[in-house]
Design brief:
Layout lengths: L5 H25 L6 H17 L3 H6 L8
Helix pairs in contact: 1-2
């Protein structure tokens, strides 16, 4: 069941890609996050994944939805 709307999906995808890029650059170049680059990578993967499948488990738990009813 879909519970993520188009605007939410685009925002998740953009933020996820930014987090993945940040984690890659931080890990490779300067390690500015003090070894926590993997946290940004995990968050980025989750954001991109939820955007791809149009479903957020936390939305389900809290009864939220950002897409119109079918």
């Amino acid at each position: 069941m879909t519970n993520i709307g188009t605007i939410d999906r685009v925002a998740r995808l953009a933020l996820g890609l930014v987090l993945l890029g940040l984690s890659f650059l931080t890990n490779v170049m300067i390690n500015a996050l003090g070894g926590l680059w993997w946290l940004a990578a995990v968050a980025g993967v989750v954001m991109v994944g939820t955007a791809a499948i149009k479903f957020c488990p936390l939305y389900r738990v809290f009864g939220l939805r950002t897409c119109p009813m079918p």
